[in-house]
Amino acid sequence: MTKKFLYLLSFFLLINCASKEEEIYTPIPYNLEIPALFANKLIAPVIPSNNPLTQEGVALGKKLFFDKILSGDETQSCASCHNPKKSFTDNQQLSDGINGLLGTRNSMPLFNLAWNFDERFAWDGKEFGLEKQALEPVSNPIEMHANWKNIAQKLQEHPEYPTLFLQAFGNLNIDSVAVTKAIAQFERTLISGNSKFDNYLKGEAILTSEEQNGFAIFMDEAKGDCFHCHGSDNNPLWTDNKFHNNGLDATFTDLGFGNITGDPADNGKFRSPSIRNLVFTAPYMHDGRFTTLEEVINHYSEGLQRSSTLDPLMKKVNQGGVNLTTKEKADLKAFLVSLSDFDFVNNPDFQE
Amino acid sequence: MKKIILFFLTLIFFSSCGDQVECCVYPEPVNVTLKFTQNWDGVPVTSSDFNDFKFTNLHGETISISDLRYLLSTITVGSKIKNYQLINIGENTGLQLNFEQIEQGTSILKFRFGFADADNKDGEYQDLNSVSFNVPGMLGGGYHYMQFDGKYKDTNNQDANFNYHTLRAVNRADPSKLIFQDTSFEVDLGTVEITNNATIEIKMNIAEWFKNPNTWNLNQLNTVLMPNFEAQKLMSANGKSVFSLGAITQ
User: Fold this and answer.
1) Is B224 exposed, middle or buried (0-12, 13-18, 19+ CB in 10 A)?
2) Which of A4, A38, A179, A189 is nearest to A111 (CA)?
3) Alpha-carbon gap, residue B140 to B122, rounded angstroms
4) φ and ψ at B86, to 5 degrees?
5) Is the pLDDT confidence value at B15 over 70?
6) Residue A142 has what pLDDT?
7) What's the mean pLDDT in A268-286?
8) For residues B112 and B114, what is the distance between their CA atoms, to the nearest angstrom?
9) Are residues A241 and A337 in the same domain?
10) B49 assigned to some structural domain
11) How far, in Å, CA of A340 to CA of A305, rounded?
């Protein structure tokens, strides 16, 4: 009898404890402001049910994103290579890590990541999901080169972080799982949908005749034919987030998607980047080989290289590409530039 | 307490009533799954056959397929209709479509290849926008019916690209006055006898796109077919013999 009583007592005690903890803090749901154009045209963004956005989670993720504590010698944060002023990339051809070691890829801009419906991240799709992706740069020896155990310990002993983690995630351990959850929450709030072209689609801006003509070239199968891979007025992501070989090389030093799938038919394929915010994100392509948009356009116009995995949408390979005139190139560039979102790079919510 | 008893009584009453109707008057409704398969003149084609010059069309060009996705609409089994289905062979998505609550007995089976004009509304379908299946506004907007991309060996035996994209045909002779022709078409597969939960195979013979009635010469018609009014009409004509009824298991 006393035993039973004891059980009962401890049971109530436990319940009491639990409810007390809930009393301590319940994170407030974060209201993701989805641009009307996205809401109208696209399916819902990907938000995993085990990591809903909360105000505390997003704030914690932001702090971590900008904090050098995540690197081995505390000299580098995520923002070192993903600078908000540059649409969350850097202007280097290849990113260098804490030891000055150069990677082999150009850093990627970060926006509209929750609309990458297949959740394949990085140029070659090697990372599945944002939470998993955030694990990688921290321990990568040519990026932040840290040890997750040490980081967890540093965060646990930090004067501010334990409270912030408690508020965001309750009693969840402060470890790589909690850190990457918070960072992923912050990353999902990075939405860019307020360029001149967006405003034009909303009827709030007027395009110049050059921009208008450039858009027509982009959409014309007989001219640029860019829309099959890079979105359109009906797909405001301005990417298909799929893997293609757009004719950069005849032979590959970086197999890209082929490395991940193991299928030689995928060699030389990389994920189509969004063409939003290009004025901030130079240089271009997975290896940052082009420093200007002129070079990019020249590539599609007359620089295509043949290879067995070249995408069939790359036309007129024998003539090197779609052969745009000087005027058409300039107009196409004017259109591309009209997709620059200055509000995004200046948004105070996204600055350190 | 009285209320609760009353509630249970009504519950029992209603559920038993439902039972009676089901058991004695009509046979149970069943589930029907449409399974979309592809073949090249009878040889099965799946995504694992892509990116390989293993097919030869009637005109004699050797072909490798890179992407193949197509849209069916107003898919009808008996009295049930589904609005549309995007079938993507390369990514193995949309290959099955389930219908629930199909009455047993004789069911009609038909669908439309692509969208009829009335349903071909620009930007209307979020799932299709999200996978970039749209047709540019300058061609009248709406959606592709099919996006079939690949390579063929040209007359110099060199790789050349083809983009066999079908959509509502548009005549752009006068860009300010586009003339449209609805080139989507109905495929009527007749009736099937449904006696149980069933899986019905719907076959696409890809080779037919190059065959009948128009022998397709890829050296002449390969890319930039979207704005090509005549090519769209030829493709539509060839499409009519592409689909057929396959195996029915139940």
Assistant:
1) middle
2) A189
3) 8
4) -100, 125
5) no
6) 85
7) 98
8) 6
9) yes
10) yes
11) 29
Q: Is residue A27 part of a domain?
A: no
Same domain, A83 and A224: no
pLDDT in tens, A154-197: 999 999 999 999 999 998 899 999 999 999 999 999 999 999 99
Domain enclosing residue A238, as ranges:
196-345
Encoded tokens for A42: 């696209």
pTM of whole model > 0.80?
Answer: yes
Contact by Cβ (8 Å): B61, B135:
no
In a domain, A81, yes or no: yes
Mark whether A166 and A224 lie in a shared domain: no
CB atoms within 10 A of CB B85: 17
Q: How far apart are CA B216 and CA B106, in angstroms?
A: 38
Q: How far apart are CA A91 and CA A75, in angstroms?
A: 18
Residue A351 in domain: no
Position B9 in a domain? no
Contact between residue A276 and residue A111 where contact means Cβ atoms under 8 Å apart: yes
Six token digits for residue B72: 């069916």
Q: Are residues A40 and A187 in the same domain?
A: yes
CB-based contact B86:B146 (threshold 8 Å): no
The CA distance from A257 to the nearest CA of chain B, in Å, is 15
State the CATH number of the domain containing residue A214. Answer: 1.10.760.10
Q: Does residue A60 belong to any structural domain of this protein?
A: yes
| Chain B residues touching residue A231 (CB < 8 angstroms) | 132
Chain A, nearest residue to B127 by Cα: A43
A contacts of B223 (beta carbons < 8 Å): 221, 315-316
User: Residue B217 corresponds to which tokens in the numbers above?
Assistant: 């010469």
Torsion of CA A120, A246, A300, B178, to 10 degrees: -70
| DSSP 3-state of B47 | helix
What pLDDT was estimated at residue A98?
74
Side-chain-side CA neighbours of residue A201 (13 Å): 21
CA distance A302 to chain B (A): 16
* Band of pLDDT at residue B39, cut at 50, 70 and 90: very high
Q: What is the ipTM of this complex?
A: 0.91
Contact A43 B223 (CB under 8 A): no
Q: Do B224 and A222 touch (CB under 8 A)?
A: yes
**A148 and A62 housed in the same domain:** yes
Partner residue opposite B162 with nearest CB, options A40, A234, A312: A312
Q: How far apart (Å, rounded) are the C-alpha atoms in residues A3 and B34?
A: 61
Count of structural domains, chain B: 1
Fill in the DSSP letter of residue B143: B
The answer to whether A257 and A125 are in contact (CB under 8 A) is yes
- Which of A191, A225, A257 terminates a domain? The answer is A191
Q: How far apart are the first and last CA of chain A?
A: 60
Residue B49 sits at φ, ψ, to 5 deg, of: -95, 0
